[in-house]
Amino acid sequence: MNIEGLVNVVDVEATCWDTTPPEGQVSEIIEIGLTLVDIDSRTRVGRHRVLVRPELSTVSPFCTELTGLTQAEVDTGVSFAEACEQLVANHRTRERAWFSWGDYDRKQFLRQCDQSGVPYPFHQNHINAKAVFATAHGLRRPVGMDRALKVVGLPLEGRHHRGEDDAWNIAALVLHLADRGAV
Ligand code: AMP
Ligand code: MG
C-alpha cells in the first residue's frame, strides 16, 4: 500500500438505541476520537477527542451504557459543522490518509455531511484497517477491534466503545500492520 508519514486514525461514536431510533431521531456523531500516527517512526504521536452536540437526537441510556457518554457531556460539545472545521484545521484531515476499523466511520461522515450540508472533511484516501487486518492474517472474515487486539497480543487500553480509546487502540493495530508490511 505504501503509506508513509503522518496519518490519522479515526473512531466515531454516535447516538444509538437497542432497537430502532425513536420517532423523528436519527443516529448522529457525538464523539470523534483521533490518533495521529507516524508510520515511519512507528509511533502514536497525538491523541485527540472532539465532542459533538447532536441536533436531531439525544443520548439514550443504552448509548450511555455502550459509550460512557452522557447527554450532559455531549451538550458541552461543538456543532457537527464546527467539529468538521476543527478536523480540517487542526488535524489536516483533507491532506492526510486516514484509517478506521471497518467502513462505518467513513459512511457515517458521508451520511451526516449529506444530511446537514456540511462539506466532507476527509481526504479520499481512506483505509479500512479491519479489512487489511483480515487479509494480512488470513482470516475467513473480518473481526472486531477487541478480537484483533487479542489475536496479536496487544492490550485494550482504556474503554472499548469510547472513541478516543478506540482510535488509540486501532492505531496500535495499524502500526502492527505497518510492521508486517501490510500498509
Ligand atoms: P464503536 O466504534 O464500535 O464503539 O461503535 C460506533 C458506534 O456504532 C456506536 O457509538 C453506536 O452508535 C454504534 N454501535 C456500536 N455497537 C452497537 C450496538 N451493539 N448496538 C447499537 N449500536 C451500536
Ligand atoms: Mg468506537
Main beta sheet strand tally, sense and closure: 5 strands, mixed
Q: How widely separated are the two ends?
A: 5 Å
Number of helices: 7
Coarse shape: globular
* H/E series: EEEHHHEHEHHH
Please mark out the parts with pLDDT under 50 across 5 or more consecutive residues, or reply none: none
Each distinct ligand: adenosine monophosphate, magnesium ion
> How many structural domains can be distinguished in the coordinates?
1
CATH superfamily placement: Ribonuclease H-like superfamily/Ribonuclease H
Instruction: Give the integer mean of the pLDDT values.
Output: 98
Describe the structure.
The protein is α/β, with parallel strands linked by helices and 183 residues long. It has a single domain, classed as Ribonuclease H-like superfamily/Ribonuclease H (Nucleotidyltransferase, domain 5, 2-Layer Sandwich), CATH 3.30.420.10. 38% of the residues lie in helices and 19% in strands. The chain has seven helices and five strands; from the N terminus they run E-E-E-H-H-H-E-H-E-H-H-H. It has a five-stranded mixed beta sheet with strand order 3-2-1-4-5, with helices on both faces. Strand 4, helix 4 and strand 5 form a beta-alpha-beta unit. Helix 5 runs parallel beside helix 7 and helix 6 packs across helix 7. The chain is globular. The mean pLDDT is 98. The site of magnesium ion has 5 residues, from strand 1 and helix 7.
